[in-house]
Queue: 2 jobs
Job 1
Amino acid sequence: MTSSGKPRKKLEVGITLSSANAHHCILIRMQLRLLSFLLGLLFLPACLFAAGEDPVFSVQRTRLANGMEVWIKPRANTRAVDVRLVVRVGFRDEKPLDSGLSHLLEHMLFKGTRSHTEIELNRMLQSKGAYDNGETWPEYTFYEVNIIDRYFPLALGWLREITQEPLLLPAALRDARKDVYSEQQGHYPRILERIFQTGIFQPLPIRLGDVLFPNANVSERIIANLDDIDANRLRAHLKRYYVPGNMGLIVVGNVDPAEILREAQAAFGSLTPAPVDRGDGLPHLAPRRIEGEIHTLFFPPAGQMTEIWRGFWTAGLSDPDRHVLRLIAAHLDRRAFEEVRLKRALAYSVGAATYDLSDIGLFYLHANATRGSDEEKTVKRLFDGLLTRVRQDGLTTDELREAKDMMTGRQVRRYENNANLAALYQELYLSTPYGTPIENGFDRIEAITNTDVLRVAGKTFVDRNGFRAAARPPMT
């Protein structure tokens, strides 16, 4: 959500397999002055330029004495600063009866603090031309302020205030529930929830989650009826997860690292360290093997197009071959688009992508084809042919070079932007233990060989590791 009430991008929530893919890189330079070094000595040692002097993957990482990580990337050629506070808590940390708790708390933190009302909080940033937002995802929640450089201390103080001093009043809770229900496209009665949990009317990503992870109660976590969540449960959630050792501060833009460290210490250094226990969320997700094609039940209820997926499981962000998988996805995204849409006009929306959580991920091809026609069979046959060719032959020298250029070019363009650069560091913060060097993604891509492609495709694109799924409307 945004504090100004503007709707944000609709999320694919829970542990569903979204088609949103944000795999990130950046462009930037950093300069550490003597004062930055001296301030670093006041805290725990910083991991500075852990990837050498690469302009994208070098970033200053510091841990405050209370355990909170601070990531700083100066960009002297911009006038804005993107500040993110990332909390390691999301839908996967909730039990089914607490479905929506993290998302509701995110909205509640914008509703007023001990020092400012919701209107005053909004005006503090809007009056400076700033942008603010919060988002909740399966494994994390983040709060973002993008602001002109001279006001970045305001952003730090504002983020500390909403996350550490919220009032969580009952009246505000009613409004926050309305906000979430609006994002979910409605507040549904319990009888519809129970029907939904049987599989009826479930969109394809949620249906996949329910079928492939039968013990995870995916749909019950997704439906998010918030009526039973009160202020006490929100306070307990806040106290448990919004602690220094479970949070990271990311700052990208026209800043001086020494000043950032001073301001971060002033804003967050006094927070009391506390242990973090995430042990009773979802267990390690091990997908169940399914024979045959997974189908939705009465979703969509009517239409002329069938949504087709061909997917395979990966180890997500923990997969040492994730860069190879992303390169193969870049290649097949182009090839599927050419074969299915440009050459044969079988589908308008078609492509290949990866989606990663910390311990599990997905590689998939997708397309929409005319319901019940030979076009469905043709799309599936083309998908199988593309996958078989990569598994058996890999990529030619020209195809490998092209895929590398596609990946690097997209990343360079994307991370000219401070906010997108901060999103990259957010992923790295969530997946890289403090003290571990940051892998240079550009070097890793360039090092991929066809031997790597054959090895990874050979173990990934096999039936025992995959599934087929379709959302075919029962009526036209």
Note: Residues 3-52 have pLDDT under 50 and may be disordered.
Job 2
Amino acid sequence: MKLNCLPELLFDQLHELHAMESQVARSLPVLSGSVMNVRLRKLLTERALRARDRRDWLADQMMRHERQPETRMHLAIGGILGAGNKHLAETGDPFMRDLLMIRHCIRIEQHAARAYGFASRLAESAGLTAESGRLASFLSELIEAGVRFRSIESELSPAALFPRARAGHMKTGADHPGRNRPLKPNQTQKTR
């Protein structure tokens, strides 16, 4: 397909989004099986369902405009998923695996959000106001998912970074001699 006009560019982007959502919808349920954190597993399952819904909406839009959804590989998402699977396979630690899962999901959400933002602006420019609004709502949904992933990440980070914290053995800085104590006047912090 030659991209010589705005509608052709828009439908090329819809094909790209369709390919991306197809890959995400297939991958997330598999990945969620290796997750330890219950909230993260639930969010991954929800994101897979929403990816299927978005994929189906995109297919409907293309068919409505007499375009056939193509089966193609979305190279950027394929790369993110491939790198994510490689990293996940390299760790045996469930906390680290969950953190890596979150980081890779955030990358997917960020890429998808940029793509939906671009497609929404193209649809608006092409006079497809309803489609633009729906694409913009998908963008908002992806941004919200990123916030939810970051919330789970912030809960996991201390436990993943400090393995003793997992078992409740982590002492606070105040419990360690010489740590987090206020300096006396004219005293400087010693460095090692």
Note: DSSP finds six helices and no strands in the chain.
